[in-house]
Amino acid sequence: MTQFQTYLVGGAVRDRLLGLPVQDRDWVVVGASPADLLAAGYQPVGKDFPVFLHPRTHEEVALARTERKTAAGYHGFAFHTAPDVTLEQDLARRDLTINAMAEDEHGQVIDPYGGQRDLADRVLRHVSPAFAEDPVRILRLARFAARFADFRVAPETVALMREMVAAGEVDALVAERVWQELSRGLMERRPSRMFEVLRDAGALQKLLPEVEALFGVPQPEAHHPEIDTGVHLLMVLDQCARLGAPLTVRYACLCHDLGKGTTRPEEWPRHIAHEVRSEKLARGVSARWKVPSDCRELAELVAREHTHVHQSGTFSAEARLRLLERCDAWRRPERFAELLLACECDARGRLGLEDRDYPQRKQLLADLRATQAVDLAATSAAAIARGATGPAIGAAVRQARLQALRSFTDAA
Prior knowledge:
Elements (H helix, E strand, L loop, with lengths): L4 E5 L1 H8 L7 E5 L3 H6 L3 E2 L6 E3 L6 E4 L1 E5 L7 E5 L5 H6 L9 E2 L5 E2 L4 H7 L1 E2 L11 H12 L4 E2 L1 H12 L8 H12 L5 H10 L2 H4 L1 H4 L16 H14 L4 H9 L18 H15 L4 H19 L5 H10 L6 H16 L10 H14 L3 H10 L5 H21 L1
Parallel strand pairs: 2-5, 10-11
Antiparallel strand pairs: 1-2, 1-8, 3-4, 4-5, 6-7, 8-9
Helix pairs in contact: 5-7, 5-8, 8-11, 11-12, 11-16, 12-14, 12-16, 13-14, 14-16, 16-17, 17-19, 18-19
InterPro entries: CCA_bact, HD/PDEase_dom, HD_domain, NT_sf, PolA_pol_head_dom, PolyA_RNA-bd, tRNA_CCA-adding_enzyme
GO biological process, one term: RNA repair
GO molecular function, one term: phosphatase activity
């Protein structure tokens, strides 16, 4: 049986060198054929290229491989595996130098492309011109920029990404892969960086033209000291990370102000009725990238109602009840809570107001609890006893909730 060597590669090596927890370990086998691994007890699992499960650890290992571009887009590759494919050849096909390092069984780092240097210099740099063959790498790099927020993108890598965009490579991306990378980037510790990098590469205009359109659009300085709508959006996304918001909230915040990009310049800096336009645009973005329903629904709700939530501190009990009704708060209390968190991120995503209090969230959650305390069965039974039917029963329930809200407001 052929003797082969196994190396730890990619993100596990990078994260260990950065002193970060290692989440996933990827392994590459050099000097072996599929038959060699089968003879050693490895179990095959791969379809596109040979991947096996280690007989003892059950971790995935892949045969060292090279790849060749055969068509546009993410799927347009042919892979070659053979015992004579070297570790350096396998690492050369990877995206960034900081991901193109390996570690042998003795802990020795193999770094043929300067990954350790770029880690020390805090640089995201492509390994080779082959980076341009896979448009997903633009999204991956932008996601890494959101994770490693103190890293800069090498100028030559920015230039290469711009060439890729100009060549139409981004147009070949499939919706599922775009959403996968966008959603992961939104969950990084500084999501704004992802969109800054995509914008610098020219890819944001292709992927999210509704977001690109926000940059350079002014807002009233009294409410938005940062003025620029695009800058505000980036600040809101970073507030999402700061407050530990889930993906649903982060995506909703991404879409909440899209309508401001369609306001006519003669109407600036006001954006009257941007909410309904934002809701429509959010629906279009979600359809384009096949966004999951929980993210899509919250995005539309936040786009439509965030201004009302901001203003709710001045609302009467009747107006606050209508807000709860429009948000379907009794049937969807968890989604309502996420709406309020998104609105708090929006309120804090403003220059100099990052630590502001947001009493509307506390108030509306308390309003919901007060109205949830209404005994619906008893209220309905009493209405029926009075001869009420159909809509009249619903009106009685609504009146009971309104009375509960008024009593709670008076007692506060």
